[in-house]
Design a protein that fits this description.
The structure is a homotetramer. The first copy, chain A, is α/β, with parallel strands linked by helices. Chain A has helices at 12-23, 59-63, 76-81, 102-108, 136-145, 176-179, 193-201, 230-238, 255-258, 287-302, and strands at 2-7, 27-33, 56-57, 69-72, 89-92, 117-118, 130-132, 156-161, 184-185, 206-211, 218-225, 244-246, 264-271, 276-283. In chain A, helix 1 (12-23) crosses helix 10 and helix 5 (136-145) runs parallel beside helix 7. At the A-B interface, helix 6 of A face helix 6 of B.
Chain lengths: 317, 317, 317, 317
């Protein structure tokens, strides 16, 4: 049994990570960090949380609790400022350590990845004990395009995400009055996940995210030059995965089947008229796009079963 | 042509009031007040707003612009603190001047209605030039129960409102992540619209509001002791109204038909087994529940056609 | 290990029951009944369903498969027409066998409960091997009012349900264009769950259901004459339950915390001004309101751990 | 005053067309066709519809009523089978007469456009009295790309539509349980609006539609090879339009501002890294995407003010 500390429990990714740790047969939560909830019991965050859990402590205290694995569910600046506790596996769910190029990192986040390893287990398993967890948009796009990257040199990625992807912080664009019955693109041509995707694929991509009127779930529709063997490449890449499923012909990915899970769905289409291959990926932005992948990365680093604690089975209508 | 000033244009009720004034054949907007947008053009609020509109000015300046009618789309404290401009018709969309009883008013809002007249045109037409515009929940409950009040002495009012009823201000309960696919009661037994409804009906009511995952629209389901002639009383009360429609037997009120309008729909049911009369009222919380009724009240006070500028016809699927 | 047959797998309650059976440590699915999917593999219903599952067979064949427990996820007429397989525990999720009074049953469903036992485990544990599973609205209302029933003789029940409560069948009222951004009451004063609630409580109730624009989840707001010890009665009734949680003061039930689970949340409020006690209950209509409760009833009848296979822990944001 | 007949009033596009005709100063509805509602009063469709309207008649009878303008709000087969009444302006909202190439038309619809003119007033004003009204997806894509077509030879069009775009007919994919909190692509690489767009632009396009969990509204995100003067071309094309608005830099199109209107919003972006121009268009699929454009086309053909009866002003929050 490994001990786990979670920093930033009061945010969406923190709460979801905590929930997976609670369901994990090999992890025990020993420190729950939250600067806003410090001193209060776990039930202050959610009445479903059990009275046996430790009370919240300041993030700094949680970091110093000596846990075997530490999950950083903080904003970029706070994650960049934190000195990783020595000896622990540290999974950073923020974007602070995702970019290898110091210049690019400075532009987008103010921190460079340095000794951190980018961990997307199916394609780039984490190495070492400092792990940068991919962004939600990047996860979906990379699952779709990673196995095809050798044969292509550009992509259009049209992505749509539920509002929880923007976090629990209050802002105008997350106000329900701005989200309900609405849809809009945002950060067109300047979203920070674009350089992250480009870094992993090796070429620039045209990336446009849209905000959906749904609570959770993310779908990326990716367009690339026609690739004859796209389906084979995807099926081979994920053949042994319990997380990523390449759907049979005629079944389209949809949010409804991945919400609340840590799985991903992929489908591939050929548009003969324009010579385009279309790959669509659906994930839960808080699952495979954040907390689920963070626990998966931790499992790999700790030598545990890769899907321990993950939600990879079960069917919700 | 009367001149109109609107204070608090940047909120939901302010923007909706402005929109009705723009469509009004007898009103001309001469001052657009907004402390947050002062100095900026109308298009800063919404790109649909025309370049011919005056720029925003501070609310205080708008109040002093000498308009014939002034709409206060402010929070309670700001509306209570404002000295009504002399000579103008003033319609206060906040709750500051709704309660006549000074003690009750102090408890709920810190201001008493004094010289202000409570204006719900179909039941209590405004008198004088200072008009307190009813709350959205109160409007729906009073349209349902006002015509029956003589024969009853109590009511259960179970109300459900879209999120715009809580305003454009950022708060946790209006975050889309808390609203989407959700429903919850709030302020149970302590909502400030309860004393307002009681004041107008003459007896206490049990009032429970719920927050719906919709942008706009409000439905109140009201339960009272069986009244034999409830349908007749309602039909008689609204027989000549272009705003309030008593639906035929077998047709239930629904948000979808009142959203974006200034109309109200009513239906009445008898539950023989328990001796209960059920009256259901649907309105748009920003229409008949706020801006539409404010303009309707102004029309009455100015001697204009009561529905001028209102959205009382048209069908949206 | 007990064997399980599920009839009517292609509907919402059938698919949800199947999913709980798959997660159940003591049940093994041996026959999947569906007249519409007969002959096709499990993945024809949902690509998440595993290739190791048996293919669909006609419902009649599934009923005759000799399973230890049979779940009837059929419409009322089909469930009423079926001869329960001898020796098996049979849980009927339809309404066919809920009403004891033959006259009432004839009016509402065309079948009487006869030898069937009404099973709501926390209040009325099932007896014998033929179990009528409560309706979703009835479950929420009875969890709220059952423990108080001795001291009251009437109730107003204002209920709101997500669209999956109306099933997967195509009808105008379930068309997304009629549901999205909408809310309306339906079947006012004539919903078949009213006599079911009355049968269990011992008095008539005024029951009004509303259709919510959410996929799943149900909230019942119940109004009764003031009861001094309502909270105590509720806490005592559910003190040892892992399924039903009485929330602490100041926390309101909400759909967001019960969706996808088999739990229930209760809160109790006193409205001093009108002498009313308000009890609010939230459940997932497909969980505690259908499939979760069906498996719970089966567990009781088979002598298994009452919550085996149920979703009673875990937190989704 | 011109007389108008509407065939297929009971569908979404029929009801919306009727509503615009009712608001039109120069059109009078003389025949309301609906095979399913024949013989019933207008209020049978919607209680908001006035008692002064004529009752519904069979579509064939409405076609023969001698109206000056006839709106065909029918499915493709019915529209193709109908002989256009002699002398009348006929606007076909179905797809039956949109494709000029007989072979393509046969593949997609079974009818060829023949004497019909494709009418998208801002780009291709209708000629003659037989007018094929564009599809909703095609309208959004063409408004975005039409003014740029000379300089490009291909496009990726990623489109997202509310559920009313699929009509009022009952089908699994329009069931609220399949739509709420969901998103999925459909008809990838084989949607019938693709050849319609290609016909008007002069080159093939890669078109992927997605079904949104909203009632109405459509957004098309279009990707083309970088065009230096894209903004200028769009602004010039729509400079005098009261229907199409090119938004200022920094404002993104959104459904919330076009729903319930007959307007369109456009924005243009440059993605320097990949040499891509992105044009985004938002419309209401039932407004500019159907009924609004149909009335606009009729106005042009009848020599009326182009926006008479249209919803081109007004602001809803």
């Amino acid at each position: 049994m490994f001990s786990a500390a979670i920093l930033g429990c009061a945010g969406y990714t923190g709460q979801e990570t905590l929930d997976r740790v609670l369901a994990h047969p090999g992890l025990e939560p020993v420190a729950l960090g939250s600067d806003s909830l410090a001193g209060r019991p776990a039930s202050a965050l959610d009445p479903r949380l059990d009275g046996d859990l430790p009370a919240f402590v300041p993030n700094e205290e949680a970091a110093a609790a000596g846990a075997d694995v530490v999950f950083l569910c903080l904003d970029h600046a706070a994650a960049a400022a934190l000195t990783p506790p020595a000896g622990a596996v540290v999974v950073d769910l923020s974007a602070a350590h995702r970019l290898r190029d110091p210049a690019a990192a400075r532009v987008w986040y103010g921190a460079a990845s340095g000794a951190w390893s980018y961990g997307l287990p199916e394609l780039w398993p984490p190495e070492g004990r400092l792990i940068a967890n991919p962004g939600c948009y990047a996860t979906a796009a990379l699952l779709a395009l990673g196995p095809l990257a050798d044969g292509i040199d550009g992509a259009v990625i049209d992505a749509k995400s539920g509002v929880s992807g923007a976090g629990r912080a209050l802002k105008e664009s997350s106000h329900a009055g701005a989200v309900l019955e609405n849809l809009a693109p945002y950060a067109v041509g300047r979203h920070r996940h674009a350089p992250e995707i480009a870094q992993q694929l090796g070429f620039d991509v045209c990336f446009v995210p849209h905000l959906l009127p749904v609570r959770r779930g993310l779908l990326a529709t990716c367009y690339v030059r026609f690739a004859d063997d796209a389906r084979e490449a995807l099926e081979e890449a994920y053949t042994s995965s319990r997380v990523v499923r390449v759907l049979p012909d005629g079944v389209a990915p949809e949010l409804g089947r991945v919400q609340g899970t840590d799985t991903a769905e992929l489908a591939v289409y050929a548009d003969g008229a324009t010579g385009t291959t279309i790959v669509v990926c659906a994930i839960d932005n808080l699952g495979k796009g954040a907390a689920g992948q963070a626990v998966q990365n931790a499992n790999v680093a700790l030598g545990l079963d890769e899907t321990a604690g993950l939600r990879v089975s079960g069917v919700l209508v």
